[in-house]
Specification:
alpha/beta; Rossmann fold; GMP Synthetase, Chain A, domain 3; five-stranded antiparallel beta sheet; five-stranded parallel beta sheet
């Protein structure tokens, strides 16, 4: 019998709407909560180390994660008395307690908004207010910043037994008697509320349900895509990609724990820490971004033998240059698989990934094949049609699948902008696929600037710059940067009679936003900002100035 996916592709010869379906068998996605999915193999590895801190060596076994998350569930349900689907804020660096907080909140029927720990108090405040967070988990170092941002109860996580005055001790609540998960968690309930700028504009809460996340975990662990081994031998997975970001959260942390791996949690990523990690831990799978590959290629202290325990290096969050791939292959004598993937917060995140086990599965410059249970098409960027284009025709990539978000939180206008009919999600990225249905993501239709894989919305920086007393108008764009990928650059129109140095503008912004949003691309003063008749900034014109 002909498979439906093959049959549908054969129909494309007679249809103007070219829809690409995932290759191979589809996966069965259980309709269970994320915590049920995470714990279903607990009896296979209860005494194995689940998370260990790279710096302090503080660690937890899988059984300890389970017991302590149950204690957090009781605290949130009975101690704080949060109601189903209220929000828990998490403002933490990568620490071994991170999954305890996530799973404890999930088992209490709550949703979790993960916040960048490098945010300023103003940025933290905006996210906590918009997400309607009722309680926040943070570290001792970050407690002063969180206190400036909110007046809700704060739970302090520390490696010491004492607690800062006015805060709640994580050690105490995580050591108390636990309880069973609440019984009324629905797979369509929101579990994660990370913030993303989508295709444009300010950050928005992305509603990811239990089903969305479980689906994506099933998709990326499918036999022809799965990278982490599950079984007797325990893989070692470095956890330096930030867990507040969807890539680090789902692809690294949750995928590793589902497979029974050991996650070496790194609170702060530096070149020195990365070198120590490679030398002291036998890493099996390395999840990174282009900057990590460039560091592995070029840092004089990283030798070929330091890399050779790695089976596969996966690079995501931003495109990896062909020359960087070739250099890595040369340095490792092609003994390590290096692959790329593509996704976005709104798709939980993975939609496309390269594969060593599929024919034509790895192509330099490509992003890969659709993960199971996923459909995609390429539509014209000018909006002239919603019909899919054929092979090797460039346009906007749109996606449909069980990993696609439920929508933005309290933002119907943004939902109407990003969704097409029948559940198709516009990615805002320009792409094409070849005759083998291998996808290539080549450019961004959306305005976002990608700094080390993090999204920087120009509109957010422009809003900050307009509060400067000397600034009359402003436009921000991303420019290529050798280390960051892209860097924000500001074009500024000063008010009449004002005189300001570019460095003063840069310092003004640096005091108000996280480091990755700093104007590392510079500041240029111009007489006017080019705009179309409706007032929209012509960013492509700015880039050519």
């Amino acid at each position: 019998m002909m498979r439906w996916s093959v049959f549908k592709r054969s129909l494309q010869n007679f249809s103007t709407d070219c829809i690409i379906s995932a290759k191979g068998d589809q996966v069965q996605i259980p309709k269970i909560s994320l915590h049920e999915f995470m714990w279903r193999n607990l009896e296979r590895w209860p005494d194995k180390t689940a998370t260990v801190c790279f710096e302090s060596q503080r660690s937890y076994t899988y059984h300890q994660l389970y017991k302590k998350s149950s204690s957090i569930t009781r605290f949130l349900r009975d101690g704080v008395r949060l109601r189903k689907q209220e929000t828990v804020g998490v403002v933490l660096p990568n620490i071994p307690e991170y999954p305890i907080v996530l799973l404890g909140a999930a088992q209490a029927g709550l949703r979790i908004t993960t916040c960048n720990p490098n945010y300023t108090p103003d940025e933290i405040k905006r996210q906590l207010l918009d997400s309607e967070s009722r309680i926040v988990f943070t570290s001792r170092d970050l407690l002063p910043f969180v206190r400036q941002a909110t007046d809700v109860p704060i739970v302090e996580i520390s490696d010491r037994n004492d607690v800062t005055a006015g805060a709640i001790s994580f050690h105490e609540v995580a050591s108390a008697e636990g309880c069973e998960p609440v019984s009324d968690v629905n797979v369509d309930d929101v579990i994660f509320l990370p913030y993303s700028s989508g295709t444009t504009g300010l950050p928005k809460g992305v509603q990811l349900t239990h089903y969305n996340v479980v689906a994506n975990l099933c998709q990326i662990t499918a036999p022809h895509f799965g990278l982490i081994r599950s079984g007797h031998e325990q893989d070692v997975i470095p956890g330096f990609l930030p867990f507040f970001h969807i890539y680090g959260l789902v692809v690294v942390l949750l995928q590793a724990l589902v497979q029974g791996a050991k996650v070496v949690v790194m609170p702060k990523f530096t070149s020195d820490n990365f070198i120590k990690l490679l030398k002291n831990y036998k890493t099996d799978v390395l999840f990174g971004i282009p900057l990590v590959v460039i560091m592995a290629n070029n840092h004089p202290a990283i030798k070929r033998e330091d890399l050779m325990s790695i089976r596969t290096l996966m690079s995501g969050a931003a495109p990896l240059g062909a020359s960087d791939v070739e250099l890595f292959r040369s340095k490792t004598k092609n003994k390590i698989n290096i692959i790329q993937g593509y996704g976005m917060t709104e798709t939980s995140p993975v939609t496309v990934i390269q594969s060593n086990s599929l024919e034509n599965g790895i192509k330099i410059g490509g992003s890969g094949f659709l993960v199971p249970n996923t459909e995609a098409k390429i539509i014209p960027v000018d909006g002239s049609s919603k019909l899919g284009l054929g092979p090797n025709q460039s346009g906007e990539l749109v996606i449909k699948g069980p990993q696609v978000m439920a929508g933005y939180y309290n933002n119907p206008e943004a939902n109407s902008d990003i969704f097409l009919e029948e559940g198709w999600l516009k990615t805002g990225d320009i792409a094409h696929y070849d005759e083998h249905e291998h996808f290539y993501v080549t450019d961004r239709l959306k305005e976002l600037i990608k700094v080390k894989g993090f999204q920087v919305p120009p509109a957010e920086l422009e809003a900050v710059l307009r509060t400067h007393p000397s600034v009359d108008d402003v436009g921000v764009v991303g420019i290529p940067h050798p280390a960051l990928g892209e860097a924000p650059k500001a074009f500024v129109v000063l008010k009449p009679g004002q005189s300001v140095k570019p460095v003063e503008i840069q310092e003004f912004v640096a005091a108000k936003v996280a480091k990755h949003k700093h104007l590392m691309g510079g500041v240029v003063f111009v007489e006017e900002i080019p705009k179309n008749p409706s007032g929209k900034i012509l960013r492509r014109v700015l880039k050519n100035l």
